[in-house]
Amino acid sequence: xxxxxxxxxxxxxxxxxxxxxxxxxxxxxxxxxxxxxxxxxxxxxxxxxxxxxxxxxxxxxxxxxxxxxxxxxxxxxxxxxxxxxxxxxxxxxxxxxxxxxxxxxxxxxxxxxxxxxxxxxxxxxxxxxxxxxxxxxxxxxxxxxxxxxxxxxxxxxxxxxxxxxxxxxxxxxxxxxxxxxxxxxxxxxxxxxxxxxxxxxxxxxxxxxxxxxxxxxxxxxxx
Length: 223
Prior knowledge:
By secondary structure, the protein is of the alpha/beta class. The strands form two sheets. The protein has a six-stranded parallel beta sheet, sandwiched between helices. The protein is built from seven helices and ten strands. It has two domains: 5-99 and 192-220, Rossmann fold (3-Layer(aba) Sandwich); 105-189, Dihydrodipicolinate Reductase, domain 2.
């Protein structure tokens, strides 16, 4: 890579994509080289030649194909789109793929704390709440939380999904024990909450020891 990381954004005209573009332009050591979006009349193929890393915030039905196209071109990909089967990237070479179920630092901590609590309290349920335009349910964050809690305890907690206007991204994990409850909750009040994690993933994706890598916790606590 050059001294500056050349970044293109797929889904650049969307709310998350536009916020990513702004974050890349404001970040040290990065340059925004392309915006791919049907609304802008540009395709992923148009921006790949000038990119070291593509950040994908598109749709569940296009994210896997986009990621495969990036890897085949030797371009690293940071994926924020959820609702597709990430196992389709296993064994693919040429570049690295990173998938973030949630890029907010607080959300990653919420998942870590919930996993620890699950070892000590007998029952838990997950409630995730998002804006009414979100296409997938349950959210990638909720699915990942349930998976890591199940890995720690052998029990997969139920997930309840809420889609309402006025929400951004929210999740709470409720625990019940003898005569007590515990609630661990995270709220993203603005899409800017995800940008520190996105920028971190852009910086780290080229040096991942394993591809695909899932979860910002791998970069915060293990990288």
